[in-house]
Amino acid sequence: MDISGIAALVTGGGSGLGAATAEALAAAGAHVVVMDLRQEAAAAVAARIGGVAVAGDVAEEGAVAAALDAAEALGPLRLAVNCAGIAPAARVAGRQGPHPLGLFEQVVRVNLIGTFNVLRLASARMAALEPQASGERGLVVNTASIAAYEGQIGQCAYAASKSGVVGLTLPAARELARFGIRVMTLAPGLIETPMLAGLAPEAREALGRLPLFPNRLGRPDEYASMVLAIAANPLLNGETIRLDGALRLTPA
């Protein structure tokens, strides 16, 4: 896909993976809408890249529709990247009692329902576009996690939500193939994002020693470069790519 001049929506674009992706897409010539629950964070990234900021919840139809409207005002909407996500920890049966059901629902709502909400609304608009010379009309890149395969203790909600993202990738790609729309998912390992920022330096250092090679935490720009690579290669479709330096998570 030629992304120069297209419009792209990046959710969770106010920080971490989303911010790096928004920056990379803008540098490659795309017109980017940065969507984040935090207006100030989205606005800061948008100002930096010459994009448009939209605040909203990815699980709300109206909020996503507004972000897509903003993207379509910039050019043909051909790319949506789902980076919004949360990862609170809780045990199924812990010292404080059973896992709060509301917390489980919240994680699934943001990580899985939010991802599907963007996928369904964006792809419906992409399907109405004229195809590029390659036959492509659009691309949706979702974000899962290696926790979808090796969820750790205390991460049942997160692992379940990310497994759902992996699970919807192939059937969505199969369904949308007739429109020339691809669906891909990235499953990052340990990336140096705000999710890890709250850890003590020694804890981050210990985590950084876990990947086999490179023996460090991943960088958000490495995720962003994979989004660009997926866009450039039309044969990538219906698959989840691990981005983890050969890391396999242990139970704890």
Key descriptive features of the protein:
42% helix, 8 helices, globular, seven-stranded parallel sheet, SDR_fam, alpha/beta, SDR family NAD(P)-dependent oxidoreductase, NAD(P)-bd_dom_sf, oxidoreductase, two-stranded antiparallel ribbon, 252 residues, Rossmann fold
Describe the protein's architecture and organization:
- Pfam families: adh_short.
- Belongs to the short-chain dehydrogenases/reductases (SDR) family.
- This is SDR family NAD(P)-dependent oxidoreductase.
- By secondary structure, this protein is an alpha/beta fold.
- The chain has a single domain, classed as 3-Layer(aba) Sandwich (Rossmann fold).
- Helices cover 42% and strands 17% of the residues.
- It is built from eight helices and nine strands.
- The protein has helices spanning 16-27, 39-49, 61-72, 101-126, 156-176, 194-197, 201-208, 220-232, and strands spanning 7-11, 31-36, 52-55, 77-82, 93-94, 97-98, 138-143, 181-188, 240-243.
- Helix 5 (156-176) links the parallel strand 7 and strand 8 (181-188).
- Helix 1 packs across helix 8, helix 3 runs parallel beside helix 4 (101-126) and helix 4 runs parallel beside helix 5 (156-176).
- The longest helix has 26 residues, at 101-126.
